[in-house]
Amino acid sequence: SQQGEEDPQALSIQEGENATMNCSYKTSINNLQWYRQNSGRGLVHLILIRSNEREKHSGRLRVTLDTSKKSSSLLITASRAADTASYFCATGGTNAGKSTFGDGTTLTVKP
Amino acid sequence: GAGVSQSPSNKVTEKGKDVELRCDPISGHTALYWYRQSLGQGLEFLIYFQGNSAPDKSGLPSDRFSAERTGGSVSTLTIQRTQQEDSAVYLCASSLAAGENYGYTFGSGTRLTVV
Questions:
Q1: Residue in A45, A48, A90 nearest the CB of B101
Q2: Distance between CA atoms of residues A101 and A73, nearest Å
Q3: A43:B42 CB<8 A
Q4: Per residue in B26-73, pLDDT tens?
């Protein structure tokens, strides 16, 4: 089974609105990463948050991590049509060299 | 190179044939990963290499799948006697080191279709 699970599976908003996606996981982690994927091809790394961090920002992106609840959220502020994509969380485990990916959230931003 | 390069970008093969997929990681990245993604699904881990250590093959779905990494750089994923369920996008990624706090850089993938 996947370590990270995103919620919701699909999200549709209007341009200018904020988009929030959530990720839950089951076991202890070293870090949690968020990626964006356009058109079912390669993923683009957005942000990595370490297990000892609670919040991180990058441009219009804000990521939070709550290790007590084993959950993370990705907030995209002032969304644009170009933000339309699938977003995946991935967890880097404490004893694993590879990251485990969830099934993703499909975001549609309507102009 | 500047990014992770995968070839071919698309491959159509007949059931039962062997295929080889190639990945050229970012220079200096010691970790290299293979994932596959079926249509509309998440990423399924296949195998990863870290430096000169033995690879973690725990995700390979059957003994028809194998991979090697020559000289700590280019990797080839081989699928023997392909089946229709092997159809997917095969994604390669590299990072500075495995198990550390580094993000992955992905290639554009190889879309494999077995007919």
A1: A48
A2: 15
A3: no
A4: 999 999 999 999 988 889 999 999 988 899 999 999 999 999 998 889
